Amino acid sequence: MTPTIVEPRSNELLPAIREDLAPFLPALRSAAQLIAAATVLEFTARYAAPAMIDQVRQIIAPAPQHQQTILVEEQTTVRRKVTVVS
Asked: Which has the closest alpha carbon to 31: 39, 42, 43?
C-alpha cells in the first residue's frame, strides 16, 4: 500500500454565499433567536409547567394523610372544701 495524500479542495462557493447573505445576517439572527425562544417556551408549557404545578400543589396543600382515630380519655376531678360550723 502506498500512502495517498488527499489535499482538501478550496471551498470557493462558501465565501460567495457569505457575501450574498451578509445584508440579511441581522434578520436571520433575529429569526433564529425567535425560533429558539419559541422552542424553549413550548417545551416549558408542554412539559415543565405541569410538573412544576404538581410540585407546587404538593407544597401548598400536602396530600391528605391516612385518617387516624385517636381516643382521648378525659377525667374530671372536682374537689371542694366544705367547712361545717359546729
From this structure: 39
pLDDT of 34-83, one tens digit each?
Answer: 999 999 999 988 888 888 888 888 788 766 777 888 888 888 898 888 88
In angstroms, the CA 53 to CA 57 distance is 6
Q: How many CA atoms lie within 13 A of 35 on its CB side?
A: 6
Show Cβ contacts of residue 34 under 8 Å, excluding neighbours closer than 6 positions: none
Contacts of 21 (CB under 8 A, 6+ apart): 28
Contact 25, 19 (CB under 8 A): no
Alpha helices in the chain (DSSP H): 13-21, 25-43, 49-60
pTM for the model stands at 0.43
